[in-house]
Amino acid sequence: MAAQNSQGIQHLLDAEKEASKIVSQARDYRAGKIKDARTEASKEIEALKAQMDSKFKEFEQTHSGDSTTSQSTLDKSTAEQLAALKTSFEQNSSTVIAQLLERVVQVKPVTHKNFVKA
Q1: d(Cα 96, Cα 74) in Å, to the nearest integer?
Q2: For the chain, which has fewer Cβ within 10 Å, the N-terminal or C-terminal residue?
Q3: pTM for the model
Q4: How does pLDDT run along the chain (118 residues), one tens digit per residue?
Q5: How far apart are CA 41 and CA 100, in angstroms?
Q6: Cα dihedral 15, 16, 22, 25 in deg (nearest 10)
Q7: DSSP state of 59
Q8: CA dist 27 to 15, 22, 32, 39, Å?
Q9: In angstroms, rounded to a whole number, what is the distance separating the alpha carbons of residues 78 and 73?
C-alpha cells in the first residue's frame, strides 16, 4: 500500500511538473506575442509618421511658395483698396464739406436749461 501511495504521489508530482511546463510555455508564447505586437505597432507608427511627414512637407511646399509672389499679391490688393478709397473720397468730399460748413454756420443761440438769471 505504501508503494501505491508513493506511486500515486510520484504520478501527481509528474503531472504538476508537466502542468508547470505547459504554463511556462503559455507564458513564453504570450510574451512572444506581446513582443511581436509591440514590434508590429512600432513599425506601423513609423510608417504613419513617415506618411504624415511627407504630407506635411508637401503641404508646406504648396502653401509656403515664393515670398515675392505673396508680396506682389499683397501689393496688388493694397493698391486696389487705396484706389477704391481715393475714388470714394473724390465722390463724397464735396458733400461732406458742404454738410460740415452747414453745421458750423448754423448757430442757434439758446440759453442752457440750467442757466439762472441773476
Answers
A1: 31
A2: C
A3: 0.43
A4: 666 778 888 889 999 999 999 999 999 999 999 999 999 999 999 999 999 999 999 988 887 766 677 788 889 999 999 999 999 999 999 999 999 998 888 888 888 888 887 6
A5: 76
A6: -140
A7: H
A8: 18, 9, 8, 18
A9: 9
